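Two records follow; treat each independently.
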Amino acid sequence: MGGLLPELGKKLAERWVSLLVLPGALYLAVAATAHTLGHCRPFDLTRLTQQIGTWASDPVTKTAGGQVVLLVAILAAAAAVGLAAQALGSLAEWLCLAADWPAWPPPLRQFAARLTTRRRDRWARAACTWHQHRDEAARALLRGQRADPAARHAAERAMTRIASEEPCRPTWSGDRLNAVAVRLERDHHLDLATLWPHLWLILPEETRAEITAARQALVRANALTAWALLYLPLAAWWWPAALITVLLTLMGRARARTATDTYATLLEATARLRTRDLADCLGLNPCATLTPETGDALTRHLTPTAPPPPTG
């Protein structure tokens, strides 16, 4: 126990430095650069060096007490900026996944509804094209021929670029996660929201580590979007900050899509592979394959009973 607490403290300190202080310190450095250089001479390294020398030659910074106070102030400011980025990252993830968008405030809810409707219309057209190519390929097989799959694959890619299943959320990432629940319900009559907490408890440690890592990758991807929002105000003083904002936004969007797809794939694969183990643990005696009947039995067994009517 005596060695556990120091090791735990060391790991927490490392995470605090890597997640909050270092990105925050970089932000403070860019902010100081923006304040010093401005729009007129955005890349004037000589002026920046001179300003740093002026700050370093200040009498306060030459004393040990002043240096300690300055270091503590920088660390505190960097941590505060990092905490702000984490809060914005949570907001970015909430908007990105849009799980409860019908409960959003009115202006945002109306915008999300219009976006969802537009995505659903685009997906319907793309899905119709894909199904037409599938039907043509099936008819060709009946005639003993094989149709060129290039057009069918292109139509499928065009459909999945919009959503894997019929859109019901305003964002691609939200629909990608929702597609897991849709497919499990359609194929095996499984309610993922009811199933997952119980399934998680019986998963091997390696599987849980993989899923946790994928989830953390999604958090980090949305954190990039948060940092982009924080760098945007600096563009009012230093126009290169706008380029940083654009770069972080593009990186955050690409990484969020990749992380969401990986996370959703792991969730679906785990549910399909391990649900029979959960049924075994509950004594439901599933057959060799996961059938809709097993899914119905699991859902009924795991769903809490409704509260009784109020008395009186």
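The next record belongs to a different protein.
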Amino acid sequence: MHEGADPTRAADVTDAMRVLARERFLPAEQRARAHEDQPLPLWHGQTSSQPSTVAAMLRLLQVPVGARVLDVGSGSGWTTALLARLVGPDGVVLGLELDPELAVWGAANLAACDLPWARIEPATPGALGRPVDGGWDRILVSASPRSLPDVLVDQLAEGGRMVIPVRSTMHLVERTAGQTRVTTHGSYTFVPLR
């Protein structure tokens, strides 16, 4: 757990991952491997991130109840569902997925979880994220750009946090009092952000 982390929220991440088991968000042929702590293939070069990486990212994100959260690269819908569990029914989660087939499948997986305050939509090709009035309280990015995208930083609300792997290093971006602070938190492997 990183410095300043809220242990209560970390316990919430563990609970969310127990309730929303990874196997529910995997293709049938991968479900028997859901317990393995490694990325598993979905299709078109996309993967389901390994559980320890997802847990580390969610703990770093420190998602508060009632937050507005953007999930970039929602894939199978697992991270979108986990974020929805963390924000609760007073929050909002929007998952964006560039692969149209994966977006439809992820949305169906999410719909089966009865978390109506969360949704998955196809991402707009050539556009990163989706700006909203007042910005997003939290942004989770599950694909790796070559450099930190300013367009996503600009979508953060005041007091917001974004967790994003840049190249192979996990970055935490915090926006406070009009200032942006970026810290790094270990090495990970992700598919490239397109």
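Discussion point: Confidence is low (pLDDT under 50) at residues 1-5. How would you locate this feature using only the token line?
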